[in-house]
Design brief:
Layout: E1 15-20, H1 25-40, E2 45-52, H2 55-68, E3 74-82, H3 91-100, E4 108-112, H4 119-131, E5 136-140, E6 154-158, H5 160-173, H6 185-198, E7 205-211
Parallel strand pairs: 1-2, 1-4, 2-3, 4-5
Antiparallel strand pairs: 5-7, 6-7
């Protein structure tokens, strides 16, 4: 399969924007891709925005982001305190906040899948498309109770050690989630293995995204 490569516009370094409704969403959805991008594009700008948190989870999120972005020269991490599970009811406030994110001027935006069954995830996805209309947007997936995993069409192959590093960092950085029966290393590595099969990844693992629009 012929791969597409991310290339910076002109001589400028790439600018990535990662959006997550909750404190571990970005890491679960595209943590392996972040680790790969950080290695391959250390000169790039990485902006990371989380919308819902508590004081405890804020500390976890900031620690996690710093570890996933280790070695990156320029990164900005923003953790907000919108009320979890109520995003559809605070849409105006979220929309106003999304408008402020235009300052990051991203080349690539990572966000939630539009068909995700979690209401907060869907709102973030809808507002992403509403805000960033002329951008490359990649929608990531989150395994959970809803059983809403679909058929993504864009894959990022990952080395096995990167997948294992992602799982390890998630467990180390988010102890508040340890009681959740699904929040385990094999959840994250198993999904990466399945997506690796689907794209015939060289080392058998990948993260998958929904790519709705692209220009060749």
């Amino acid at each position: 399969m012929l791969p597409f490569a991310l290339r910076p516009p002109g001589a400028k370094p790439l600018r990535f924007l990662f959006l997550g409704a909750h404190c571990d969403d970005v890491e679960i959805g595209c943590g392996g891709t972040i680790l790969r991008l950080a290695r391959e594009h250390p000169e790039a700008s990485f902006a990371w925005v989380t919308f819902a948190s508590t004081p405890e989870r804020r500390r976890e999120a900031e620690t996690s982001a710093s570890r996933f972005l280790e070695g990156v020269k320029e990164h900005r991490v923003e953790v907000n305190a919108f009320r979890e599970s109520y995003f559809p009811f605070v849409g105006a406030e979220l929309k106003d906040h999304f408008e402020t994110l235009k300052r990051h001027e991203p080349d690539v935006v990572f966000t939630h899948h539009r068909e995700d069954r979690h209401q907060d995830h869907r709102v973030v996805s809808d507002l992403t498309w509403n805000t960033f209309r002329n951008h490359l947007v990649l929608e990531y997936e989150i395994p959970k109770w809803d059983g809403d995993l679909g058929q993504p069409n864009c894959f990022v192959p990952l080395p096995r050690d990167t997948v294992e590093q992602k799982a390890r960092l998630l467990l180390e950085c988010f102890p508040s989630q340890a009681q959740r029966t699904w929040f385990t290393a094999d959840t994250f590595t198993s999904l990466a293995r399945l997506r690796g099969i689907e794209c015939n990844a060289p080392e058998g693992h990948a993260e998958a995204f929904y790519l709705r629009k692209a220009v060749l």
